[in-house]
Amino acid sequence: MQPLESRIDYQFRDALLLAEALTHPSFAYEAHQPHCDNQRLEFLGDAVLQLIVTEELFKRFGDLTEGQLTKMRARVVSRRALACFAMAIHLGGDIRLGKGEEASGGRRRLSILADAFEALIGAVYLDSDLEQARAWVVRLLEPEIGGMITNPGERNPKGELQEQLQAIHPQAPVYRIIRESGLDHRRVFQAEVSWQNQVLGTGKGKSKKEAEIRAASEALRSRLWET
User: Fold this and answer.
1) Which of 20, 37, 42, 46 is flagged as catalytic?
2) Is 180 a residue of the active site?
3) Which tens digits make up the pLDDT trace of 68-90?
4) Comparing C-alpha atoms, which of 107, 129, 126, 102 is closest to residue 40?
5) What is the pLDDT of residues 36-52, one digit of tens each?
6) Does this model's pTM top 0.85?
């Protein structure tokens, strides 16, 4: 479990909690331990995640209505988004699956990845406390939540691109600022996004974050990874 703990930057005091979070029901059933899977932790993790994301959006977006905040929260906690977060930390390779699920490609199934990610949140919460769990969750979800500050009305292009690419391979896209121009008070940044040594898109903006978002948008339009 140590490589996973290193990737998620959290070391468990109770290693059994981590093992439980990574145990799919198919594995527990084949091991004749039907109640030793991650479903209870998933249930808890879902509630913890909802609270943390709701509070974070409430604090960051003080000018938005309840309806707008609800839509934004739905983006962050959707099944596809949670699976994407799981792929970003390469969680699939650590899940304990039954032979049937293993053979049918369960490690890449969105529902299994999302459930394991929620179970992991529940395990971190039980292993520490709400404040530590909040800091850990916000750090992992920052690429999605942070992108909403620049682009609150639509899905975060960086999150969308990462989700689509990591459905193919767990490697994450890489962003790089390739040019800066203009006066000090009117800088223009140009960014490029690449994946598996292929440049997928470029974009310009008044900030590095805006340039990266536009590069991701161009990549989503061109879809060069499919050629």
Assistant:
1) 46
2) no
3) 888 888 888 988 889 888 988 98
4) 126
5) 899 999 999 999 999 99
6) no
Token pair, residue 194, equals 């690449």
CA distance linking residue 213 with residue 9, whole number of Å = 26
Domain ranges for the chain, please list them: 2-158, 173-226
Question: What is the β-pairing status of strands 188-195 and 198-205?
Answer: antiparallel
Residue tagged active-site, from 118, 127, 144, 160: 118
Active site (annotated) includes residue 218: no
Please give the torsion angle defined by the CA atoms of residues 58, 88, 92 and 48, in that order, rounded to the nearest 10 degrees: -10
User: What's domain 2-158's architecture?
Assistant: Orthogonal Bundle (1.10)
Give the DSSP letter string of the chain: -HHHHHHHT---S-HHHHHHHTB-HHHHHHTT-TT-SSHHHHHHHHHHHHHHHHHHHHHH-TTS-HHHHHHHHHHHTSHHHHHHHHHHTTGGGG-B--HHHHHTTGGG-HHHHHHHHHHHHHHHHHHS-HHHHHHHHHHHHHHHHHHHHH-TTS--HHHHHHHHHHTT-SPPPEEEEEEEES-GGG-EEEEEEEETTEEEEEEEESSHHHHHHHHHHHHHHH-GGG-
Q: Which CATH number does the domain 173-226 belong to among 3.20.20.80, 2.60.40.10, 3.30.160.20, 3.20.20.70?
A: 3.30.160.20
